[in-house]
């Protein structure tokens, strides 16, 4: 799958020589393409051949970002049907007929990118792209796709339906987006509000805070929070994770908005700290004493920390530094072996 900005991995499936010819055109026009072919279909020299397509698709379905089936749509549907989970995790699936007349986006049109893949395949083969997602047909923005493009994590993806239906129906959707993370794309379809008071209307909430909101409000989490961490040597990941969860719960913040963890350089080798960062799927940054000393205005400087580490603050200074001199939302929270502070990135910088 696509990781670390590598080119998306694409599988092209064929069962006939005619389909193999189309597959070769696709493989010759895109990078990181693997052709899977029935043994009687032929195909490029580096093709992977199968005896049973059903078993081969089942084996490789999660190994690719996109699948292109050069065959009847019905066959493709039967192959992938038992393997589907949800549009939030399924790879893109496109079906192209063997005459290259149509390229049909079948699964994961927005989040998986099948709509875009259908258009790419159509451009290569001369086919007509077939896009059936409701928002595209209605000419309104796809909020799940916009969220992905802007690096926002849905907190309640089930609310996408309520917002999309409102947009399709021509209703104005309320939007609380104080930093305008979503940008101008939703301008004519949404009404900005200065406080998260949605009443009973469907809406979009873009923030790291966790107020009580109606079920028809889509909550999108920006990667906006930097977490500064101090710890005693040997502190395990369980204690560190508990400290983070406790601080976020107490101050009603979402851990889905964690952008990165930060500490003093000397602590970045701690196994517990590294494991905690992996648990939250966030990077860990270390700052030197000189860099932390640049942050002079910290809420709770410590003479003890200065005595042992050479700086007046680790967790608060590291959080502010990582947040590009952002505002402290959670001052130092202390447990027996940890200190945690949280700062918010200023999106207006």
TrEMBL record:
InterPro entries membership: CbiG_hydrolase, CbiG_mid, CbiG_N, CobE/GbiG_C, CobE/GbiG_C_sf, GbiG_N_sf
Domain Cobalamin biosynthesis central region: 141-222
Residues in CobE/GbiG C-terminal domain copies: 225-343
Keyword annotations from UniProtKB, A to Z: Hydrolase
GO biological process, one term: cobalamin biosynthetic process
EC annotation from Swiss-Prot or TrEMBL: 3.7.1.12
Molecular function per GO: cobalt-precorrin-5A acetaldehyde-lyase activity
The UniProt record lists the keyword Hydrolase: yes
Start and end residues of each Cobalamin synthesis G N-terminal domain: 56-136
Transmembrane segments: none
Class of this enzyme: hydrolase
Name of the protein in question: Cobalt-precorrin 5A hydrolase
Organism: Desulfosalsimonas propionicica
């Amino acid at each position: 799958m696509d990781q670390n900005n590598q080119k998306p991995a694409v599988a092209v499936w064929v069962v006939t020589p005619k389909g193999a010819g189309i597959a070769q055109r696709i493989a010759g026009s895109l990078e990181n393409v693997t052709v899977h072919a029935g043994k009687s279909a032929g195909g490029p020299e580096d093709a992977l051949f199968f005896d049973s397509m059903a078993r081969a698709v089942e084996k490789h379905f999660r190994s690719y970002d996109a699948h292109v089936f050069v065959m009847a749509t019905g066959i493709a549907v039967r192959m992938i049907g038992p393997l589907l989970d949800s549009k939030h995790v399924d790879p893109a699936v496109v079906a192209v007929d063997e005459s290259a007349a149509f390229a049909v986006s079948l699964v994961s049109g927005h989040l998986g990118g099948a709509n875009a893949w259908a258009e790419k395949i159509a451009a290569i083969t001369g086919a007509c792209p077939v896009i059936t997602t409701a928002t595209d047909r209605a000419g309104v923005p796809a909020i799940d796709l916009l969220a992905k493009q802007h690096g926002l994590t849905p907190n309640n993806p089930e609310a996408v339906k309520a917002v999309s239906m409102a947009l399709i129906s021509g209703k104005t959707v309320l939007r609380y987006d104080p930093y305008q993370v979503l940008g101008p794309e939703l301008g004519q379809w949404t009404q900005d509000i200065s406080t998260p008071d949605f009443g009973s209307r469907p809406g979009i909430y873009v923030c790291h805070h966790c107020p009580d909101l109606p079920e028809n409000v889509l909550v999108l989490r920006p990667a906006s929070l930097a977490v500064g961490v101090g710890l005693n040597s040997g502190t395990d990941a369980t204690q560190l994770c508990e400290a983070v969860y406790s601080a976020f719960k107490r101050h009603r913040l979402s851990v889905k908005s964690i952008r990165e963890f930060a500490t003093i350089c000397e602590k970045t080798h701690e196994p517990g700290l590294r494991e905690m960062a992996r648990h939250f799927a966030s990077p860990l940054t270390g700052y030197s004493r000189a860099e932390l000393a640049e942050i002079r205005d910290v809420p709770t400087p410590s003479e003890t920390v200065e005595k042992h580490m050479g700086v007046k603050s680790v967790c608060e200074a590291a959080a502010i530094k990582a947040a590009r001199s952002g505002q402290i939302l959670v001052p130092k929270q202390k447990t027996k072996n940890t200190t945690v502070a949280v700062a918010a990135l200023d999106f207006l910088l």
